[in-house]
Amino acid sequence: MSDNRRLLPLLLALCVTLTTIPLVLGFLGGLHLAFDSFAHFRVHLALLVVVLALPLLLYSGWRRIGLMAIVLSLSSIASVTVPTSSEARANAATAQGEPARYRLLQLNLRYDNRSPREVLSLIGRVAPDVITLEEVSGMWRDELGLVESAYPYRIICDSPSPVGSVAILSRRPFLHPSTARCYNRGALAIATVKFGGTAIDIAALHLGWPWPFEQPWQIRHVEPPLTRLGGTAILGGDLNAVPWSAIARRVATAGGLTPIGDIGPTWLARPLPNALRRNVGLPIDNVFVKGGIVPLRTERLRQVGSDHLPVLLEFAVNPQGGEPGVMQATLGQ
Q1: How far is residue 63 from each of residues 19, 58, 73, 93, measured CA to CA in Å?
Q2: φ, ψ for residue 199 (rounded to 5)?
Q3: Which of 67, 99, 238, 265 has the greatest count of CB atoms below 10 A from its CB?
Q4: Environment class of residue 184 by beta-carbon count within 10 Å: exposed (0-12), middle (13-18) or buried (19+)?
Q5: Hey, what CATH class is 86-331 in?
Q6: What pLDDT was estimated at residue 99?
Q7: How much is the pLDDT for 270?
Q8: C-alpha span between 254 and 52 (Å, rounded)
Q9: Can you state the percent helix, strand and coil of the chain, rounding each to 5?
Q10: 3-state SS string for 74-98
Q11: Strand 130-136 and strand 102-108: pairing?
Q12: Contact call for residues 107 and 133 (beta carbons, < 8 A)
């Protein structure tokens, strides 16, 4: 029995060491996207290290290792906080009076969603001004036709994949309908939408799974059109990447965008209970803003048959916060 007690801290220390390896590698995503795959699970790995390291504090010869592991884990968790940009704070501070409020709904529909009417009901209740959608399969093209009268301005991309493409639906007119474009086999759509006196580039993006899957290849193809976004823009999408990942940073850098990092977990594998999605899921449904966009509020809405939660962004537009969107991205190709 005493031998087992002596062996326990050794086994715990070994488990802590092995778990910290992918945790640390996740910070090296800029060197290779293979490491970035670990970054998506940074919070989960850090919490696991804490659970394994806490018992080591009870053993005098192992306390230093346990304490170092806990400090590393807490620092890793602190690193996932995405601060509000100084530009967004400045826009909010300079917004005069009671600005007009607009709504953008971001949702991965799930290509084989068995509850499409729940999605349509959500759209009717929330009544967003513009919607960015992913996994718009053939089934969803028919279903979205039911809200065409409410959202007559739209672009639904074609895709060779049965999972479907991205789409943008809008109550408000496109500035130049003929220049709304799709890119990378339906993974990216960009359209310029008129919000009062300001034209805003709206982008919908769906990246594939991280390395070793198609995400590294896709990011190289969507960066060029993102660099041509206008001065005021919003991008909503399922990046299959967390806001603090190298992939998300590349999206932000390419478009000159700032992530809204306080959305929270939105995705969880379908076999797991839906109740866990808001707490232990991955925050891979992202919204980015640029220029005169003033984010006022973000909210994760209730589940509507998809393995992703809908994300609602309420925002205002500060005309002095950036140049109006001019659909530079779609004029480029």
Answers
A1: 17, 7, 15, 48
A2: -95, 125
A3: 238
A4: buried
A5: alpha beta
A6: 78
A7: 82
A8: 39
A9: 40, 25, 35
A10: HHHHHCCCCCCCHHHHHHHHHCCCC
A11: parallel
A12: yes
Q: What angle do CA 225, 240, 194 make, to 5 degrees?
A: 45
Grouped pLDDT means (10 residues each) for the chain, 333 residues: 74 95 96 96 96 94 94 94 52 60 97 96 98 97 96 96 96 91 97 93 97 96 97 97 96 96 90 86 96 95 96 90 45 32
| Residue indicated by tokens 């007009």 | 100
The beta-strand segments (E) located in the chain are: 102-108, 130-136, 153-156, 165-170, 181-183, 188-195, 198-206, 233-238, 258-259, 285-290, 293-300, 311-317
Query: DSSP code of 306?
Result: S
Q: How many helices (H) and strands (E) does the chain have?
A: 11, 12
Residue 96, pLDDT score: 53
Beta-carbon contacts of residue 231 (< 8 Å; ≥ 6 apart): 290, 291, 292, 322, 323, 324, 325, 326
The tokens describing 261, both together, are 């990092």
Structure tokens at 103: 């709504």
Q: Which two tokens stand for residue 41?
A: 């699970």
The structure tokens 């192992």 sit at 62
Backbone angles phi, psi at 328, to 5 degrees: -60, -35
Token look-up 């929270």 returns 264
Q: Where in the chain is the domain with CATH 3.60.10.10?
A: 86-331
Structure tokens at 328: 């530079």
- Cα 231 to Cα 80, 134, 260: the distances in Å are 27, 24, 17
Three-state SS for 178?
Answer: helix
The alpha carbon of 37 is separated from its chain's Cα centroid by a whole number of angstroms, namely 15
